[in-house]
Amino acid sequence: MRGGVSESFRLDLLLVVFLLLHCLKDSTCSSLNHLKGSLIKDIKEGTLLPETSPTAAPQPLLPLLAPSPLAPFTNSTSAKLSGLCTLNFDAVKSMMAVTSIDCVAPFAEYLANVVCCPQLETTLIILIGRSSKNSNMLALNGTLAKHCLSDFQQLLVSQGANDTLQQICSLHPENLTEGSCPVKDVNEFETTVDSSSLLAACGKIDLVNECCEQICGNAITEAAKKLALKAYDISRMDGSHVLSDHTTRVNDCKRIVHRWLASKLEPAGAKHLLRGLSNCKNNKVCPLVFPNMKNITNACGDGMNNQTTCCNTVERYVSHLQRQSFVTNLQALDCAASLGLKLQNGNVNKNVYNLCHISLKDFSVQVTPEVSGCLLPSLPSDAILDKTMGISFVCDLNDNIPAPWPSMSELPASSCNKHVRIPALPAVASGQISFKGLNIWSHLLLAASMILQVPCV
């Protein structure tokens, strides 16, 4: 779970664009539908899935990739910039290139939770932090923030990123300002907080242990509280309204602390820190939205008299979850627990995960109906642009680990709780991996029409 590598799905975006344009040009999409039919046949005949018992030590699987039939996604366009932003975009040029790949147009929405948006926010923090070396300011004013955010997105879009990133990642010009934090000057910052202790706690972190021990996270919170207190007469800190304002200020001041840390660390170290802290937060919460589950409670509740009807209903429900987002392996555990508890509260007492063979990968976006969902690693990862193969991203699980049905008598599964048994996990990839033949282009062509919801009938 903490770094296993099992599947790499690569997508030539020009091929997808070709299919989309072809489909839009011909409303019947007859040729594409014929292609899909033949691909399904190829997949059924050619796919080799790992035969792994959920209770055994699972083995990693990497698909053998076919050569790319078209040129990779490397084209870029000229960005139309305002000319009013004073931030030095060249200082994070390589990081912006990574961000544009992480937020590549077709997949940005599906990779938003743990790849695109964390990388986007990290790049912005480092951009402002490094610029503070010249400006001595850890925030932009409202007008400058508006211009800089627009230029930032234009530059990313010119390199292939989705053009709706502000909406996808809920990013606003205010995110580049100090918000309600009373401190934005570097000198004032360093005289207010214990900057040496803060840098010692966050200069080098172990991503796994940090999520459990929160050494850096606690140091950031303490520093943010000290900054927030400068806005108040401490004797007035007793009313609920004041305390509520204080909570908002602390959160805004955390952004200031992040930018200061980014100004003191090399870009690679700052990215390691900020992406790690982001994943610690994201992995604790299921990002999926659960629609009304009345149909499941009716079909699978007490008095269930037809297992087939129950499982068909569960599978239809889960298929809606699979259209939302890629999730990490730890998020999948959270999602399984959340849905299970909701079903139990709806009077579903049987373990429908076991009854209907629901696995952890069923909570993530499905690559194709024949090849089940991809769970992203719980540690930070980026999409990769290969000059010959296109875009790829890493999946952590390749076996059908059963989704654990929650027990009222047990604590929720957590990588930090040593008393909770987490289901069997995949082995870490190594040089001994045996490659299985897999027609990956068949999968990706079909995935393009499914995930992007091409209007073919």
TrEMBL record:
Pfam families: At1g61900, SPARK
UniProt keyword Signal, yes or no: yes
Key words of the record: Signal
At1g61900-like C-terminal domain sequence ranges: 284-357
Domain SPARK: 82-230
Signal peptide from the UniProt entry: 1-29
Matching InterPro entries: At1g61900-like, At1g61900_C, SPARK
This protein's name: SPARK domain-containing protein
Origin species: Datura stramonium (Jimsonweed)
